[in-house]
Write a structure and sequence with these properties.
Layout: H1 18-24, H2 27-32, E1 39-40, E2 46-47, H3 71-74, E3 94-102, H4 108-126, E4 147-152, H5 154-159, E5 190-196, H6 199-213, E6 217-226, H7 259-263, E7 280-289, H8 291-296, H9 299-306, H10 343-347, E8 358-359, E9 362-368, E10 374-384, H11 391-401, E11 408-418, H12 430-433
Antiparallel strand pairs: 1-2, 3-5, 3-6, 4-5, 7-10, 7-11, 8-10, 9-10
Helix pairs in contact: 4-6
Biased composition (Polar residues): 1-11
Subcellular location: Cell envelope
Domain Dyp-type peroxidase N-terminal: 84-227
C-alpha cells in the first residue's frame, strides 16, 4: 500500500539544501493555497486537489510570485510500504523500462551495495527531492507521481550464489507462435520500471538509476513509453492504446476480495518464496502493433477482432464499458455477437479458469522504419502472484486463435520477481540478499 504525504511537505525535520528548495519550492504553495492533499491507497485511486493561482500560467516569476504546482506535479507516492510502488498506482503519462546485467566478476556483495544505492536514490526522488550531485534535470518540479520499481530476473540468482532461493515462478516462459523475440532486448539480471506524470521527472530518475549502477551493472536494454497525460480528458477514463482501443477494462479491481491473492505473493509464503511476501511477478513484453494493416480494417471489423465498441469500450453484446461480456448472445444471423476468436472473449477470466493479471502498460513509438511503417506498439507489463497461473494460461489460449494475433508481434520478453516493498530502514531485496 502506498499513500501520500498529506501535509504537502515531506521535508519536516530535515535541513533543506538549496537543491531541495529549488526542486520542491512550489509544493509549499499548494499547502498555503489550501490544497487538501492527495491520497493513493491500495485501490490505486487518487483524490486530487488542484490549485492554480494568478494569471501567469507560464510558471515564470512575476508580480504575484511563483505559481502553485497543479495536482499533477504535487502527487507523491511513498517509497516504503507493503508493496513496491508502481504496481497499483494509476497509469503515469511517461515510463522507462530498463534491464541490467551484473558486470563480470560482480556478485552478491556488489548487488547488495547496488540495491542500497538504488533504494536510497528512489526514496529521495519519489519525495520530489534531488540527490547529491544532482544533474538539475527536474529542478522546480514536484514528485509528479514518480514511482521506481525494482525486480530480479532468473539469471540474477545464479550470479549472486542464490540459486537455491530462486522461486519456481521464475522458470522460463514457454515459447508462443506469435513470438519473434530478440534476445538482446529480453530478460536481464535486474529490471527497473520508472513511471511519472512529467517527462523530465521520469528521465531524471532514469539517469540517476543508470549512474548509480556504476561498475556493478551494465545496461542490457532500455525502452521508453507513454500514456495519455493526466487531465487530458474531461473526466477520468480508461486509457487507449495506439490502435485506438480502450485498453484495460477487464483489469482486476483492488476492491475485489481476491485481488491480493491474484496479484501479490501472500505474507505466509515459505521456502524459496518467503522473501517474496508482498511482492509480485512482472511479465514484460514489447509488442509491435502492425498499425498499417490494422488501420486498413473498417471499423466494424476492428470491433469484431476485439469484441468491443471502439467508441466507448462497451462489449458488442451491449451495455457500457464495464458491462460484463454476454458470451452467449447471438445475432439474427445465428452467429455469436462477440465472435469466437475475439480478443476480449478469449482473454476473459471466466474463459481461463479465473486466471487474471493486472495489466499496467505503456505505449511506445520508436520512429518510422525505412519501409515507412511505424515501430510502435505496447510495452506490455502485467502483474500476478504466479505467472504460471496468470499470464501463461491466458497467453497460451490467445496463441491458439486470437483474431488480434494477425496485427501484433511479440518482439521481446522478460519475467522478473519483484519483492515486496521495503520497510523503513530497509532497501529493496534486503530480505533476499541478507538472508
Amino acid at each position: 500500500m502506498t499513500e501520500s504525504d498529506n501535509s504537502g511537505n515531506s521535508d519536516s525535520g530535515r535541513e533543506s539544501t538549496p537543491v531541495d528548495i529549488s526542486r520542491r519550492r512550489l509544493l509549499g504553495t499548494v499547502g498555503a493555497a489550501g490544497a487538501t492533499g492527495l491520497v493513493i491507497g491500495a485501490a490505486g485511486g487518487v483524490g486530487i486537489s488542484s490549485v492554480v493561482s494568478g494569471d501567469d500560467t507560464t510558471g515564470a516569476s512575476g508580480a504575484g510570485g511563483p505559481q502553485a504546482l497543479t495536482s499533477v506535479g504535487a502527487t507523491e507516492v511513498m517509497f516504503h510500504g507493503k508493496h513496491q510502488a508502481g504496481i497499483t498506482e494509476p497509469l503515469q503519462s511517461r515510463g522507462h523500462l530498463i534491464a541490467f546485467d551484473l558486470a563480470p566478476g560482480a556478485g552478491r556483495k556488489e548487488a547488495m551495495a547496488l540495491l542500497r544505492r538504488w533504494s536510497a536514490t528512489a526514496k529521495v526522488l519519489m519525495a520530489g527531492k534531488a540527490p547529491a550531485e544532482d544533474t538539475g534535470i527536474a529542478l522546480d518540479a514536484g514528485p509528479s507521481s514518480l514511482t521506481i520499481t525494482f525486480g530480479f530476473g532468473r539469471t540474477f540468482f545464479d550470479r549472486t550464489g542464490l540459486a537455491s532461493r530462486r522461486p519456481g515462478q521464475l522458470d522460463p516462459l514457454p515459447a508462443f507462435s506469435s513470438d519473434a523475440l530478440d534476445p538482446r532486448r529480453s530478460e536481464g539480471d535486474l529490471w527497473v520500471q520508472i513511471g511519472a506524470d512529467d517527462a523530465l521527472v521520469a528521465f531524471h530518475a532514469l539517469r540517476a538509476v543508470q549512474k548509480d549502477a556504476g561498475d556493478a551493472a551494465r545496461v542490457r536494454w532500455q525502452m521508453n513509453g507513454f500514456n495519455r497525460s493526466a487531465g487530458a480528458t474531461a473526466k477520468p477514463m480508461t486509457a487507449r492504446n495506439l490502435m485506438g482501443q480502450v485498453d484495460g477494462t477487464g483489469n482486476p479491481k483492488p476492491t475485489e476480495p481476491d485481488f491480493d491473492r491474484r496479484i501479490f505473493v501472500p505474507a505466509g509464503a515459505t521456502g524459496a518464496q518467503e522473501w517474496m511476501a508482498g511482492g509480485s511477478y512482472a511479465v514484460v513484453r514489447r509488442i509491435r502493433m502492425l498499425l498499417d494493416d490494422w488501420e486498413k480494417l473498417p471499423l466494424d471489423r476492428q470491433e469484431k477482432v476485439i469484441g468491443r465498441r471502439k467508441s466507448d469500450g462497451a462489449p458488442l453484446s451491449g451495455g457500457s464499458e464495464t458491462t460484463e461480456l454476454d458470451l452467449n448472445k447471438f445475432g439474427t444471423d445465428g452467429k455469436a455477437v462477440i465472435p469466437d476468436n475475439a480478443h476480449s472473449r478469449i482473454s476473459a477470466p471466466k474463459q481461463n479458469g479465473g486466471a487474471a493479471m493486472l495489466r499496467r502498460p505503456f505505449s511506445f513509438h520508436d520512429g518510422i522504419g525505412p519501409d515507412g511503417t511505424p515501430d510502435a506498439g505496447l510495452l506490455f507489463v502485467c502483474w500476478q502472484a504466479d505467472p504460471l497461473r496468470g499470464f501463461v494460461p491466458v497467453q497460451r489460449k490467445l496463441d491458439r486463435g486470437d483474431a488480434l494475433s494477425a496485427f501484433i508481434r511479440h518482439e521481446s520478453s522478460g519475467l522478473f520477481a519483484v519483492p515486496g516493498g521495503p520497510a523503513e530502514g530497509e532497501y529493496v531485496g534486503q530480505r533476499l540478499l541478507e538472508a
